[in-house]
Amino acid sequence: MKEYHNNLNRRDFVKYLLAGSAISLSALDGLNAGIYQKITKLNQKFAEDESPDGLYWEGIRKNFLFEDGLIMMNNGTVGPMPLPVYNTLVKYFKVQVTNPFDVYNVLPAKRESTRQKLARFINASPDETAITSNSTEGINIVVHGLDLKPGDEVLVTDMEHSGAIHPLRLKAKRFGIKIKEIPLRVPPRDTSEIVDDFAAAITPATKFICIGHTVYITGVITPLKELSRLAREKNILILGDSAHGLGMLDLDMKEMGVDFFVSSPYKWMGAPTGIGLLYMRKEVQEKVWPCIVSSGWDSREGARRFDPQGQRADAMIYALDEALNFQNAIGKTRIERRVKALSSYLRRELSEIPGIKVHTPSDPYLSGGLTAFSLKGVDPVRIVNFVREKYNIVVRTIGNVNKGTYGVRVSTPIYVSFKEVAMFLDGIRHLARQPA
């Protein structure tokens, strides 16, 4: 197997996998085992290495199969699967081809062990952890399951994702709830500024706070711990929409204190698209009606009854489990440190370029792996196209002109190097020197 892999370049290797070639399922297992052995050796060799770059991350990067020198700095939309996750996904999708009986007789048993692993990953109980398709599905489950009545108020920011605000607008049309928007500063100065704005907006009618944790427009990490404390004091439920959180941040539900939390592990954690997390604190579960039900919905215990029902693609569960293995092999703390080191470097250098406005806070508590900015006199579309054509770097436009948030958003995940960030910065400096 080792000789076979070494004699193929990455693109050919992927073609063989996609074609269902001579690589057997047992060989894929062996390949994954070899990958984790290499990561273990890296961990042992660099056990005390605090360097945010260097040989350790070069070794990790080898598990991502980018084509043609692609530098993917938009995993905030969709991220890549590392090789072991892809191997596992291929292996278990193949079961339906070779033995469909196992699709319903064997594969579903993996859901519970994966739920337990996912719960440990976020410091929660398996009874508080549901497996969904994505963040939007999780938000819909909570919003449409809550008994909110006419006149009840929901607090949101003016930067919520469509997957969060539209379920609430539907709820408002059907049941007469009121949605109150709290403006987020660009960028906010500190934690108290955000918390104080929410505290000032609370009235006796406020029943629910739905807030982006990893704000996709500006890259702000909202202080969910402090907002959850405020909500608990006022007997208000709170949901954190953290589509980017898994795989970017070292998450701890108990420390955060939030009632509901959703995430999409196919952005930063390396899972395939179509798998998601819904955390629901045990003490609030009886306040939510399950919305997608089938046989047994009223007898399942804990968050399991909020798993969307019906036949599911269990290969996705196996792949999620493998993504958790990959993350755990590196370590959540090390991953967050790497992501924030890259983004801090990017923001610091951007702030030195004339004409740049950085929309993301410099405070590491209020920022993560997403950085948004604008360059005076330069259309963000031009920036996106320029860096793709010159460096093969993928970033995206984001925001709204009227709200002053229109700009470029850059992701700095673990497989990106400081050299590549510096390359991107060179492109921005070039554009900043050009006449408007």
- Give the CATH H-level superfamily of the largest domain: Type I PLP-dependent aspartate aminotransferase-like (Major domain)
Tell me the name of the CATH class of the largest domain. Alpha Beta
**What is the number of strand segments?**
13
Helical stretch tally: 17
Low-confidence stretches: 1-8, 16-22
* Cα separation of the termini: 56 Å
Strand order of the largest sheet: 2-8-7-6-5-3-4
Q: Given the helix and strand composition, which structural class is it?
A: alpha/beta
CATH topology of the largest domain: Aspartate Aminotransferase, domain 2
CATH architecture of the largest domain: 3-Layer(aba) Sandwich
Total number of domains: 2
Mean pLDDT over all positions: 92
Order of helices and strands: HHHHEHHHHEHEHEHEHEHEEHHEEHEEEH
Provide the gyration radius in Å: 22 Å
Q: What percent of residues are in strands? A: 5-15%
Q: What is the makeup of the main sheet?
A: 7 strands, mixed
Helix content: 40-55%
Would you give an account of this structure?
Helix content is 43%, strand content 13%. The longest helix is centred in the N-terminal third of the chain and has 21 residues, at 25-45. The chain is built from 17 helices and 13 strands. Residues 1-8 and 16-22 have low confidence and may be disordered. The protein has helices at 2-6, 10-18, 25-45, 55-61, 83-93, 95-98, 100-105, 110-121, 135-145, 162-175, 191-201, 224-233, 253-256, 314-330, 332-350, 380-391, 418-433; strands at residues 71-72, 129-132, 153-157, 178-182, 206-212, 237-241, 260-263, 276-280, 356-358, 370-375, 393-394, 396-398, 407-411. The chain is globular and about 65 Å long. The strands form three sheets. Strands 2-8-7-6-5-3-4 form a seven-stranded mixed sheet, with helices on both faces. It folds into two domains: 109-325, Aspartate Aminotransferase, domain 2; 334-433, Aspartate Aminotransferase, domain 1 (Alpha-Beta Complex). The protein starts with a helix and ends with a helix. With 436 residues, it is α/β, with parallel strands linked by helices. Strand 12 and strand 13 (407-411) form a beta hairpin.
